[in-house]
Amino acid sequence: MLTVSNLQKTYGSGDQAVEAIRDLTLTVDKGEFVCIVGPSGAGKSTMLKCLCGLLQPSSGTVTLNGVPLNGPPKEIASVFQDYSRSLMPWFTVRRNVGLPLRNRHRSAADRAARVATALEAVGLTSFGGRYPWQLSGGMQQRVAIARGLAYAPEILLLDEPFASVDAQTRADLEDLILRVRDDTGVTMLLVTHDIDEAVYLADRVVVMSARPSVVLDTVEVDLPRPRDQVTTKQLPRFAELRAQVLTLIRRPAHHDSTPDHHSKIGERR
Amino acid sequence: MRLTMPLPVLTTAALLGTGEALARSGALPAEIPPVSEIAGWLWTNLATVDLWMAVSQTLTHWAVALVLGVTVGTLVGAAMASVPVVNELLLGTVEFFRPIPVVVYLPIMLLLLGARPAVVILLAAVAALWPMLLQTLYGVRDIDPVTRDTARVFGLTTPQRLAWVTAPSILPYVFTGLRIASTITLLVAIAMELIGAVAGLGNTLATYASNGLYAATYGVIVIAGLLGVALNAVFERLERRALRWHPSHRTQNA
Amino acid sequence: MRIYLRLLLPVLLVVGWWTTSAGSTSPFYPPLRDVLAAFGESWLFARLGSDLVPSVTRLLVGLLIATLVGIVIGVALGRSRLLARALNPVVQFCRSIPGTALVPVSVVLFGIGDGSKILVIAFVCLFPVLLSTLDAVRGIDPELEDVARSYRLTRAQRLAFVLLPAAAPQIFAGIRTALGIAFIMMVVTELYVASNGVGFVTLSARNSFDVPQMWAGTVLLGLLGVTLSALFLVLQRRVLRWHIRMTERN
């Protein structure tokens, strides 16, 4: 279980301080699929970096199974937005996926078996010997997902993972992620700016405001599973949920619940 | 920010101070004089004709060689890049001679032509020629095909195309070539002076070193280093000025 | 047709050299036949071990030291802005000294033996490697570092599997520059003062007025330059195969 309470993150200090996140509180239960949506420019990536231990919050806490995070934990794997930048072009697909396993599994045979299983899960069994730049964008992102899966995490964090692929590939990858979740039961936390995607994938959608971000509301997604790109999206309930999230995002943010001393931090002495 | 400003000054001073202390305490061999002695030599000799004579001789070798090498290199490079037959004719030869450093020809040149400034200039010019030739070649070849097509679509004449498309496109390459050529020309010029005993900084160094005038030797090295720093700075500034529009420089000004 | 055209000029040059020198009576311009004879006599056997091997060894050892030290310092300065700022004046000054100006001092300090030559070659070649490593390490995509950190790679793993491979193309470009400079330094140190080496033999042939030997030495040095450069390209192509193939795709 991942618990975030009163997370706040400010970059810089003094006159140049930029407050990316003001006040975030959320809980992700084991096995849950949570999507976080927010307008472009909300502190979504900042938040994910705090959640996976890459960034230290300015205040507030992130705890995993009751233990406060101190650096990247071994229970969390990340899939980054830009596959062309997050895969190592000097390694083959197999070595890319196997790289994080070096500290987990001593035996090379053990590592190879796990890499093979992960590649099979994303349908890339026959591409292990290729280099990332020999693959299409969608396939590269599948490699990144396989790398996350091979790590056998409790929680998979995905930062706008389908933002740089075309629409058809995007739908395929969404379904791939759903299938992987069903097969492995891994907890998923996915950040996106696409409302349809969030509603389609999630058990619960957390809506964030523009910077400085706060949680506007949480929407429970009670759509039946398994989901389907055509039939699920035709359901009247899908349209309702979608409208609900959209309304939340478009409504101007009210920060009345936050303490006053946070406001206009850049202008204060 | 304000606090870290003098950091480079502090570390440099600390390094120089350590050198001074080591030399004074006798931890360093006698052939390495204390920094203060080098500075003292520089101070008393900065006003002498001899030193500036040597500097100007080396600079003359450098400048004439650079102009010659750059001109010939650019012309041959441009000819190779734009006329296929010339390219085919010269490519094998260029590929063969390019990795041969010019100092290789020094003994034979000393034999044939004697130890003269002209020999220094000739060889240093050949050294400057290669980077210039190659950069021009790469530059013309790498002109963006879209830019080239655009120019053709708008019906630019050949001189217009050369002036407005080819020249600006290859300019970054030309400046890279210039910077490399300048460094290598100075390196080679000093080597020639050193070995051929042709008047200039190289020869001055050899004389001082072999006569055991160590403070003077290091003083001249400092001068040579500062010369290198100054030439680098001049070319970098020229480049930045001429390439303000280029992506690699645009961000710096933003 | 194309390949013939490429060979035309080199063939003409050699034929021209042969015919113009064949009947030459000038002591400075001996017949090419004599030069080749001197070449075969000296460089194919007699002086191979005594002069060619020491020259090449000094060059390679100097270059190797420069490469290792340059990468270590380059990575350190690339990782720490503070360190890079602190040492910037020293590095800028040292890299701007024309390397050949240091040859007399190296002889004064370390004599005329191998150590002296190797040291001065290494010092001068250090800077191209150092600066290109520094540049490469600074330019590494922060996303890759995030990946490495979030998957808990150790410092050593990050260095070996992320930092160095990412910097390798630029480091190789630096080593290639350094190789050219190392060759110049090798020849200059031997021409200045030495007791063996190809440059030494070539220059001392002048004193005994053995002109064909001088020409032969020049030819050998030229061939050596060409060979070393070609071997380096082969090595680069092997190590950076991924990079070359990736660049060719785009």
From TrEMBL, chain A:
Annotated InterPro entries: AAA+_ATPase (IPR003593), ABC_transporter-like_ATP-bd (IPR003439), ABC_transporter-like_CS (IPR017871), ABC_transporter_ATP-bind (IPR050166), P-loop_NTPase (IPR027417)
This protein's UniProt keywords: ATP-binding, Nucleotide-binding, Transport
Ranges where the ABC transporter domain occurs: 2-235
SUPFAM superfamilies: P-loop containing nucleoside triphosphate hydrolases
Pfam families: ABC_tran
GO function terms (MF aspect): ATP binding; ATP hydrolysis activity
Designated name of the protein: ABC transporter ATP-binding protein
Organism: Micromonospora radicis
Lineage, broadest ranks: Bacteria, Bacillati, Actinomycetota, Actinomycetes, Micromonosporales
UniProtKB/TrEMBL annotation, chain C:
One Gene Ontology cellular component: plasma membrane
Subcellular localization: Cell membrane
Transmembrane stretches, start-end: 59-78, 90-112, 118-140, 161-194, 214-235
Origin: domain of life: Bacteria
CDD domains for the chain: TM_PBP2
Residues covered by the ABC transmembrane type-1 domain: 52-232
GO biological process, one term: transmembrane transport
Alphabetical keyword list: Cell membrane, Membrane, Transmembrane, Transmembrane helix, Transport
Major place of residence: membrane
SUPFAM superfamilies reported in the protein's UniProt record: MetI-like (SSF161098)
A Pfam match: BPD_transp_1
InterPro entries from the UniProt entry: MetI-like, MetI-like_sf
Membrane topology: Multi-pass membrane protein
Protein family (similarity comment): Belongs to the binding-protein-dependent transport system permease family.
Protein name: ABC transporter permease
